[in-house]
Write a structure and sequence with these properties.
The chain has one helix and 25 strands. The chain has about 350 residues and is an all-beta fold. It folds into two domains: about 25-175, Jelly Rolls, CATH 2.60.120; about 185-350, Sandwich (Jelly Rolls). A hairpin with a 2-residue loop joins β8 (about 120-125) and β9 (about 125-130). It is elongated and about 70 Å long. Bound molecules: 2-acetamido-2-deoxy-beta-D-glucopyranose (7 copies). One 2-acetamido-2-deoxy-beta-D-glucopyranose binds near residues 282 and 336.
């Protein structure tokens, strides 16, 4: 399974009317002229501001006009860094809070040179990723879950070759403290999906934390859905729209299998599985299954709660074998129904060994 972020305006989500709380959200449209800031995104209602208050360096530009109709507004302007090897944003956060941090870069031939940039992105002193925009006509979005270690978060772009680093958007969302807790390190998203055979993705305001959920469906799955309200109140706050459908195996006596390859293949993996019973069970019916991650995790006799989410997750990091990760939901002999799953998220650990210190410390 592969998660692919499309910055293009595809999807079937609705225009949001009316305000939802965006408390603690930082939504920067990089390179946006100050006199156009702030604005509410017409698609999802998120309030974007210019990045100019958070960085003193770099220059603003715009992507090629041909992308105006394809990309969301936050990706049409950008900031590029012709000077210096390292340029940093300094953002106000709360020390000890876990944040979902996303950066997007769309080259859009802003300089007319048709030369896709390559550069690195750091969080403070620690390398987060290498950004290579070759062949990424619509840009790319990278995200990580990271606990702030001081009240300032530095996102830094490092020049690594001939091309100038660029950035289009920075989106930071506080998460609940008791969620996505790791033994050490930050979490890089492998995928976050809800089991539905449609094409639309889900994010804010359906997801109050503004996580993006892509639909995923395997050819050996059958779908069940409900129109009933599902109680999603646990710490993970999975959007209700992501829970209203679920996959079961087409072969009702067989297991439901989900496999993926973490990168790197020996990565430490964390998995979050969200279940809710969305079928009306008769008094003589039972849905019970074992949740097995070969060699790592075995939760036996699990029964999804009626119209209420339950999140099963790995408290210890797991390591999958050389063939990848293999999740199996196996019907128990007691069960009269096949296993189901509504949504799941997988992450790989990135260690950030260098101590973050800000100048004011
Ligand atoms: C998380 O913990 C930090 C520091 O302990 C605290 O300031 C913050 O309010 C907490 N956030 C939530 C959502 O509980
Ligand atoms: C970019 O997005 C457009 C519109 O969604 C799509 O037609 C095109 O194939 C995408 N290009 C790439 C390289 O993914
Ligand atoms: C999930 O699938 C059902 C049936 O195909 C569809 O009606 C529903 O809108 C889908 N859910 C989302 C969030 O797209
Ligand atoms: C949802 O579940 C929570 C926790 O079990 C409970 O406190 C709350 O009352 C439920 N909400 C509804 C609308 O049933
Ligand atoms: C369905 O699954 C059961 C149990 O794994 C297996 O014995 C059977 O051969 C499968 N049937 C089909 C048609 O694949
Ligand atoms: C449950 O009961 C209904 C009617 O009472 C019956 O038709 C059905 O076959 C039973 N299902 C199972 C799994 O025993
Ligand atoms: C999972 O645990 C159950 C109950 O302890 C056991 O019956 C089953 O064989 C285990 N499965 C695996 C693959 O370890």
């Amino acid at each position: 399974m592969r998660s692919h972020f499309l910055l293009a305006m595809i999807g079937t989500f609705a225009v949001i009317v009316g305000a939802q709380t965006q408390e603690g959200f930082i939504s920067l449209n990089c390179g946006l002229p100050v006199d156009e800031s702030p604005y509410d995104d017409s698609f999802n209602g998120l309030t974007f501001t210019s990045d100019s208050a958070f960085i003193q360096t770099g220059k603003s530009s715009r992507v090629d006009k041909s992308l105006n109709k394809i990309l969301g507004k936050q990706y049409l302007t950008l900031r590029y860094f012709p000077e210096g090897r390292r340029n940093c944003y300094s953002l106000d956060v709360k020390s000890g809070t876990n944040y979902l941090i996303a950066v997007s870069s769309v080259y859009g031939n802003y300089d007319g040179l048709n030369r896709d940039p390559k550069f690195d992105i750091y969080i403070g002193p620690n390398k987060w990723l290498s950004m290579d925009l070759e062949g990424r006509q619509n840009g790319t979005k990278e995200e990580i879950i990271h606990k702030a270690r001081s009240n300032s978060l530095d996102i830094c772009l490092h020049k690594t070759g001939e091309t100038f680093p660029i950035i289009s958007a920075i989106e930071i969302r506080p998460l609940r403290n008791n969620t996505y807790v790791t033994k050490s390190g930050a979490l890089k998203l492998s995928f976050r999906v809800y089991l539905n055979n449609t094409a639309g993705f889900i994010r804010y305001a359906d997801d109050v934390r503004d996580r993006i959920w892509f639909p995923f469906f395997g050819s050996s799955y059958a779908q069940i859905t409900t129109d009933l309200n599902i109680n999603n109140s646990n710490a993970y706050e999975v959007p209700k729209s992501a829970l209203r459908s679920a996959a079961t195996p087409k072969n009702t006596s067989g297991p439901l299998v989900i496999t993926w390859t973490p990168r790197p293949s020996n990565a430490q993996v964390y998995l979050y599985m969200h279940f809710a019973e969305i079928q009306a069970l008769e008094a003589n019916e039972t849905r019970e299954f074992d949740v097995i991650l070969k060699g790592n995790f075995n939760h036996s006799g699990f029964r999804p709660t009626k119209l209420k989410v339950f999140t099963l997750f790995t408290e210890e990091p797991m390591q999958c074998d050389s063939r990848g990760c293999h999740l199996e939901l196996v019907r128990t002999p007691k069960s009269t129904l096949p296993p189901l799953i509504n949504a799941l998220e997988a992450y790989a650990v990135i260690e950030f060994p260098q101590v973050e210190t800000s100048i004011s410390d």
